[in-house]
Amino acid sequence: MKRASAFAGLVAGILALFAVSCESLDGLVQNPSAEIKSVTISGLDLEGISFNCNYAVKNPYAVDLSLAGITMNVDCKNSKVTSMSSSGGVKINASSTTTNSMSFKVPYTSIIELAQNYVSSKTLPFKIDGTISIDTSKVPLLSDIGTKSLDIPVSTDFEVPVFKPVLSVENFKVKMPTFNELKDQLTKGGLGITKAITIATKLISGEKLTADILDGISMNIDFTFDMKVENEGSADWTFDINDCAINSSNGKIAKVGPASSKSTISSKKASIPMKATLNTIEAGTLIIQMLNKSGTNPTFTLNSGLSFPGTSYAKNIPLNYSTEIPLSNIKK
Q1: How many Cα neighbours within 13 Å face the side chain of 76?
Q2: Max CA separation in the chain (angstroms)
Q3: For residue range 239-286, what is the model confidence (pLDDT) as tens digits?
Q4: What share of the chain is helix, strand, coil (3-state, %, to 5)?
């Protein structure tokens, strides 16, 4: 009986020890976790919308891990739009949560095509589905049982505004002063009446001008054109003109702005008259090229900001635009 009792006690002790060991093992082999924290617009251009997919990976182990790879698909209503992947290599610090991001781009053409099935929608429902693979080869308990990596599924939903910006410029014109205005400005600038009349006549007549005709003369001449802004989608938007300029190959020549105080567009389509005041001291070469309609085309650059009322996206998302101004199209 004593032997039986002793044997039973030994078995009970072994089982208790085994139970404690299993509980400890369970604690040691907690799986890493991962989630997509947010999806944000990182930038816009005239081709599409660039997004940042921000994710976090939690490492419960006392050793550093690394990402083995990431694969994610972006779709809308089960229609694949794009995908993103990474070969890994990102360090995941021990006993902590590491955050990082991946980028992807959705073309406007895809947005507009998808929106044809949702005519009244101002946003489209998008979804990210993917897998984050973790290299666990440095975790002894896992590597001992042959588990070298773990695949963690992640997903999230987000909305994409239905829009496609279209920008263009046209109706270029050098607004020359009248003959008398030119003569008065030139004489006030110190020229004799005879020379002032000669230069004013040449500027007004349309004859070919020499590059040095405005040397030493300080006078302002207005250059105007129309900027057309259109949203081909159904999303509500606000388009703000933040800054724009006329540039040559040597850099910025003149600042450009709306001819009126209007610098914000909230409608789907608008045309804004633009104006630049060119000084003959600073932009004499360009003025002569404009009047002669020959030379190197200057460039119009625009920095604007878009906002989408009613969405969670940040306000004043940058949209930059650049286009050549054909000298041959400039009227006087």
Answers
A1: 22
A2: 137
A3: 999 999 999 888 888 999 999 888 899 888 999 999 999 999 989 999
A4: 25, 45, 30
> How do residues 25-47 score in pLDDT, each as one tens digit?
444 457 899 999 999 999 999 99
Backbone angles phi, psi at 122, to 5 degrees: -100, -15
pLDDT the model gives residue 119: 65
| DSSP assignment string, 136-173 | -TT-HHHHHTT--EEEEEEEEEEEEE---EEEEEEEEE
- CA dist., res. 244 & res. 256, Å (int): 5
Q: What would the two tokens of residue 99 be?
A: 């955050």
- CA proximity to 243, closest of 328, 302, 199, 174: 302
160 and 124 Cβ atoms separated by less than 8 Å: yes
Beta-bridge partner residues of 103: 52
Rounded to whole angstroms, the Cα distance separating 285 from 274 reads: 21
At a CB cut-off of 8 Å and minimum separation 6, what does 165 contact?
Answer: 44, 46, 108, 229, 230, 231, 232, 239, 306, 319
What is the model's pTM?
Answer: 0.78
Amino acid at 249: S
Burial class, 310, CB count within 10 angstroms (exposed 0-12 / middle 13-18 / buried 19+): exposed
Rounded Cα distance, 132 and 44, in Å: 27
